[in-house]
Amino acid sequence: MYEKIRVIQYGCGKMGRILLRYLYEKGAEIVGAIDTHPDLVGHDAGQVAGLPVRLNVPISDDAEQVFADSDAQVAVIAISSLMDDVYPHLERAARHGVNAITTCEEAFYPWTTSPHITNRLDRLAKDTFCTLCGSGYQDVFWGNLIAVLAGATHQITRIEGLTSYNVEDYGIALAEVHGAGLSLEEFDRQIAQSESLPSFVWNSNEWLCARFGWTIRSMQQELVPTTREEDTPSETLGRTIPAGHATGMTAIVTTETYQGPAIVTQSVGKVYGPDEVDRNEWTIQGEPNTTVTIAQPATEELTCATIVNRIPQLLDAPPGFVTTDKMPIATYRTYPLQFYLL
Amino acid sequence: MYEKIRVIQYGCGKMGRILLRYLYEKGAEIVGAIDTHPDLVGHDAGQVAGLPVRLNVPISDDAEQVFADSDAQVAVIAISSLMDDVYPHLERAARHGVNAITTCEEAFYPWTTSPHITNRLDRLAKDTFCTLCGSGYQDVFWGNLIAVLAGATHQITRIEGLTSYNVEDYGIALAEVHGAGLSLEEFDRQIAQSESLPSFVWNSNEWLCARFGWTIRSMQQELVPTTREEDTPSETLGRTIPAGHATGMTAIVTTETYQGPAIVTQSVGKVYGPDEVDRNEWTIQGEPNTTVTIAQPATEELTCATIVNRIPQLLDAPPGFVTTDKMPIATYRTYPLQFYLL
Fold first, then answer.
1. Residue B340 above 70 pLDDT?
2. pLDDT at A342
3. Given the DSSP bridges, would you call strands A6-10 and A29-34 parallel, antiparallel or unpaired?
4. Is the predicted pLDDT of residue A60 greater than 60, yes or no?
5. Which domains does chain A have, with CATH numbers?
6. What is the pLDDT of residue A2?
7. What is the DSSP track for B251-319?
8. A306 touches chain B (CB under 8 A)
């Protein structure tokens, strides 16, 4: 006998629509769908996700009512990148005793970047006996990919990572906070010297330390402009970035540990030139050295698939805010068998 | 309070010496060392391994006596690549109730290539309450590396692997069974048409199917000569391979499953030209596609480190022949804490 896992899709934007389709195709029961965008409210979640069937689950902007009106086991929250923004949504799921997994990048390892709200959520989830966690692309490609290679390593002295994305794909707001289009003087004044938020590889460096049992001695972030020797047209900015001006930036996060190994991760976000593509490259230095390269990762699909593959482990985890460093690796599940509860 | 894990190093050749050093550096207690090579017998295991200290453990050619004379928890067996050859050594460890892990490539997943002896060992290990398994480079780079990427994948339709090694590194016997130096007509007659042993990626394809819960519908192996357009000097053969002759071969193992996905793995073993290097590349096809490349893996060190990192999981596993598809991923352990029993 099987029982479908009952899921609320919380956020039905670009990622939410992929998540809805993956959830449905893997055999989950969509019991609710939440979004506040006027173009989405009232529309059938199945139609919005491009499914070949109607789910007869209208997207609602009344999140409280959706949680009150179903006995969901899981909420999949795809709303924002920062803990401050996702907090009320995680809190709502936890208050209703519903396990929640979120694409929020900071939630991947928020214990030190947002300790107060993470601990409050942890406390609340333990009181209501549910589990909260963050996952996505970084869970595999900045996390367990490195852990699996480390498992073949005798002594690690240093881990170097490089991840690169095209800010053209994410709209004007992101392009501007990356300093795209600024002269180097403007970049220095407006970006490098300003109080900046930690890059998401800050959180993943901390995740790696937790995974390896390392204690952090220091964390540093440096923001460096990226440039090209040719002019770089930008659709998002609506103009061409002159040669030598910033096309974006690299956030370099350096983590030193008391156990010895350092983790230095570069997160490059810029307007790409014609020959540039997304990259994800990591080198473990030590005995021996190992370098891994992922060519042009499909970050959105990889994020959504990882989230869905994590759900059985989310249900299996103890109550609390349980970051995925404490879980087994996300596991591919063949449609549809393993996705049902026994 | 800590207790060092007591280990017998069984086989003190090229791999055994690296293993001895890794074991010692990670805090294991070397309680016995076995090898039959006259150059090694009687010599101190620490000296043979190049350690800065004497272990006062002489390498012995009397394996029975070494097992009788210690209360080892683990035997690390680095002797041969095939189950038929490693069987008496695994049997000896199991008969003495000593957990054993071996570099034997076939032992990585021997359930269908050597079912009779694997089941006998499984039965014996359950009777004596110990665990046997095979691990090494393939555990991570043909196994869990793919499993970790699969965990970020929604639907897998096909997995393609390519692994390449230089037969120059492994002596004349290996070069000859790879057909290095033969004309294409000779290759066809002597290699392609002959009854050949399964390539080791046969076993790793089966491991992947076990890991993903897939049932095998068919397994096929094809042997294809590799050639170059230039002459290729070979130190191992002691001559130059003419352009167009076989420099070695590719074993292509195709695994079809009832669940749908196919696994096609190419194992290339040849005399390298000046521009060729070791490779390990895998592509998961489906939604989405993901390609991973490992540049020039240090296969020997990676094998030994994986074996040592697996030991705590070997001790933690239930009795029997437990292939590593049933274990968590091999885990990097920081010197020396986690290597001690609580």
1. no
2. 43
3. parallel
4. yes
5. 6-136+300-339 (3.40.50.720), 154-287 (3.30.360)
6. 77
7. EEEEEEETTS-EEEEEEEEE---TT---EEEEEEEEES-EEEEEES--HHHHHHHHHHHHHHHHHHSPS
8. yes
User: Which of B141, B294, B305 lies closest to A291 in CB terms?
Assistant: B294
* Residue A334, pLDDT above cutoff 90: no
pLDDT at A339: 54
Q: Is any Cβ of chain A less than 8 angstroms from the Cβ of B327?
A: no
Under an 8 A CB cutoff, do A259 and B288 touch? no
Report residue A25 CA to chain centroid gap: 22
- ∠ CA(B93), CA(B98), CA(B104), 5° rounding? 50
Output DSSP code: residue A185: H
Distance of CA B314 to the CA centre of its chain: 16
pLDDT at B195: 76
- Partner B, chain A 209-238, Cβ-Cβ below 8 Å: 212-214
pLDDT, one tens digit per residue, over B163-204 is 999 988 877 888 888 999 999 999 999 888 877 788 999 999
- Do A152 and A317 touch, CB atoms closer than 8 A? no
Please name every residue paired with A252 in a beta bridge, in sequence order, or none if there are none.
A222, A266
Predicted pLDDT of residue A337:
47
Contacts of B314 in chain A (CB under 8 A): none
Q: Mutate which of A20, A103, A209, A332 to test chain B, going by most B C-beta atoms within 10 A?
A: A332
CA-based nearest residue to A179, from A195, A161, A164, A167: A167
Is some CB atom of chain A closer than 8 A to the CB atom of B146?
no
Helix (H) or strand (E) run with residue A66 in it: helix A63-68
* Average pLDDT of chain A to the nearest whole number: 94
Quote the pTM value.
0.95
Percent of chain B with pLDDT over 90: 88
Name, in order, each residue with C-beta under 8 angstroms of B308's C-beta and a sequence gap of 6 or more. Answer: A154, B19, B22, B23, B26, B28, B76
In whole angstroms, how far apart are CA B242 and each of A204, B171, B190, B247, B275?
A: 51, 20, 18, 9, 17
* Chain A residues lying within 8 Å of B334, measured CB to CB: 212-214, 259
In three-state secondary structure terms, B159 is: strand
pLDDT-derived band of residue B335, with 50, 70 and 90 as boundaries? low
Chain A hits for B139, Cβ within 8 Å: 152
Instruction: List the one residue out of A302, A238, A298 whose CA is nearest residue A271.
Output: A238
Is the CB of A149 less than 8 angstroms away from the CB of B140?
yes
What b/e readout covers A178-200, taking b as 16+ CB neighbours within 10 angstroms? bbbbbbeeebbeebbeeeeebbb
- Least CB-CB distance to A148: which of B148, B154, B298? B148
Put simply, whether A330 touches B (Cβ < 8 Å) is yes
Task: Report the gap between the CA of A217 and the closest CA in chain B (Å).
Answer: 16
Chain A interface test: which of B281, B329, B332, B335 (most A C-beta within 10 Å): B332
What confidence score (pLDDT) does residue B342 get?
43
Closest to B148 (Cβ–Cβ): which among A145, A293, A301? A145
Query: Judged by CB atoms within 8 Å, which residues 96-135 of A form the interface with B?
Result: none
The per-residue pLDDT for range A80-116, each reduced to its tens digit, is: 889 999 999 999 999 999 999 999 999 999 999 999 9
Q: B288 touching A, CB under 8 A?
A: yes
Q: Are B278 and B296 in contact (CB under 8 A)?
A: yes
Span A164-175, pLDDT tens digits: 999 888 778 888
Mean pLDDT over B301-326 rounds to 96
CB A28 within 8 A of CB A5: yes
A73 against A172, higher pLDDT: A73
